[in-house]
Amino acid sequence: GALNGRKVIFSQIPASKKAMLRADEKSWVGGDIWIRPDLVETFKRIAKNGHDGFYIGKTAELIEKDMKTGGGMIDRTDLANYQAILREPVHATYRGEYEIIIMPLPSSGGITMTMMLNILEGYNLKKMGHNSSNTLHIMSETMRRAYADRAKYLGDSDFVKIPDYLTTKEYAAKQRASIDPFFTTQSEEIGPELTQTTESTETTHFSVVDQWGNAVSNTYTLEGGYGSHIVIAGTGILTNNEMGDFNPQPGITKSNSQIGTPANLIEPNKRMLSSMSPAIVTKQGKLHLVVGSPGGRTIINTTMQLILNVIDHGMTIQEAVDAPRIHHQWFPDRLNIEGGVSQEIIESLKAKGHTIRTSGFFSGSYRQGDGHSIMVDPKTGYLLGAPDPRIEGAAFGY
């Protein structure tokens, strides 16, 4: 699978080869036992010393040593000074009785989704019809505008001043007024001075609700699949490649997926922008939905559509997960559409000026996200779990 497909790159790095490949370098098969002694010792230090078992002491020494060997810049001082920051989540309201609680910056999901929900609140999506030509057009134009603002304004809020008006209903009304209901706005007209960096789709999401009603929506990532592919010698730790989510070269403008702006410029001690959007939805103060997805920059749109499918279109949670999705991220100026949307609707969208993509990144049809979700049945209180059939995963109850 994915691990065996990376044998060549892992074999080029001694510590990665030792940790990730079989001793005989043959492919892993079902039933193999994978032993990671260095990682076991690292876990023991963390179990014994908590935070200090990683950021101070032997593990930190091994990380610093490996960084020096490989020409890296992280040292023990950097590790000792690092602290996770607990931030207040973004709170959006929708159609009066719903509150959506979403991950805050440096994830762009909370603010970007709030901007889109505020705009879409002004349309009767139920009357317009699920995935009708008019609905998909309005959603695409909404995505286009929100993602342009995402690129222009959003970054680590400890370094960047975020405009307060972005998540207001008043700003949404102005954005809504700029949408032509019959034809597209060219992306170059919205933010011609902006560019974006690429963002990997290799992310993981799970949703959990326990017997007491406590809910967790968790999205986490190494950025790319298997991160940087570099294992730190002596630790068994596989390092991520999250720095790729920064903008390393401001001012480079391309009309494709390369979008990066000053707000997300790489700087010391700064946290990179992401699109992770784990969300919890309440209805009149009671838990209603737990949703989220992997998928790089598509995450925000996938998660939003899960919510809209339930609230506006009255779907069950499984129907909401299974339904075809769309994605527009401002640049490239292209609307991605999953299979299941009729050719008649696609032609109607083309007539409105949309450039459409229905094929996948590698082969076959375009697939978007992996939105494993939970809904609390408002009548019975039962927990309804919905696995996404697009990639892998399952729903379990205990």
Keywords:
globular; 13 strands; 398 residues; alpha+beta; Glutamine Phosphoribosylpyrophosphate, subunit 1, domain 1; 2 domains
Summarize the entry for a quick read.
With 398 residues, this protein is an alpha+beta fold. Helix content is 32%, strand content 14%.
- Going by CATH, the homologous superfamily of the largest domain would be Gamma-glutamyltranspeptidase, small (S) subunit
The average pLDDT value, as a whole number, equals: 92
Total DSSP E strands: 13
Give the overall silhouette.
globular
**Count of separate structural domains:** 2
The major beta sheet can be summarized as: 6 strands, antiparallel
CATH architecture of the largest domain: 4-Layer Sandwich
Question: What's the order of the H and E elements?
Answer: HHHHHHEEHHHHHEEEEEEHHEEHEEE
Rounded to an integer in angstroms, the radius of gyration calculated over CA atoms is 22 Å
Instruction: Just give the CATH class of the largest domain.
Output: Alpha Beta
Strand fraction band?
5-15%
What is the helical fraction, as a range of percent? Answer: 25-40%
Figure out the total of helices.
Answer: 14
Structural class: alpha+beta
The residue ranges in which pLDDT falls below 50 over 5 or more consecutive positions are: 253-257
How would you describe this structure to a colleague?
The protein is α+β, with helices and mostly antiparallel strands and 398 residues long. It has 2 domains: 4-81, no CATH class; 88-398, 4-Layer Sandwich (Glutamine Phosphoribosylpyrophosphate, subunit 1, domain 1). The chain has 14 helices and 13 strands. The chain has helices at 7-11, 14-20, 37-49, 52-55, 58-70, 76-81, 109-120, 125-128, 133-153, 169-177, 187-190, 299-311, 317-322, 343-351, and strands at 90-94, 98-102, 203-209, 215-221, 231-232, 237-238, 279-283, 286-291, 326-327, 335-337, 356-357, 373-376, 383-386. The chain has a 6-stranded antiparallel β-sheet. It has a 3-stranded mixed β-sheet with strand order 9-10-11. It is globular, with a radius of gyration of 22 Å.
